[in-house]
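Researcher: Good morning. I'm working through a list of sequences from a screen, and I'd like to move beyond sequence-only analysis. For each chain I'm collecting a predicted structure so we can compare shapes side by side. This is the next one on the list. No need for commentary yet; just the structure.
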Amino acid sequence: MLETSFPALNSALQRARATVAPPDTDALAGDRLEVARAEAISRYVRAWETGDFDAFVSMLTEDAILSMPLWLYGLDGRDAVAASLRSPATWDGQPRPGRYAWCPRR
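Model: Good morning. Structure tokens for this chain:
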């Protein structure tokens, strides 16, 4: 009916699909995810280093878990993590900016 070969029709169909296909959203989504990840890390480090525990706790999920080597126990849940991090025992005194700093791995 179209007076063309089967391979020619397949080729035309592939070109048509490529023309109407949306742009490669995987690359865009990956870029957005990387930007969001970098922003979250920056907020986390800033909250920790400045002692802004309200900002820090706001980033935790309800099911947050905190464990560290050498501790004999772990902390389960946002409230337990927040209580421990606000404790003077954690800070060898009152929580204060500059007590701990994050150093990126190389």
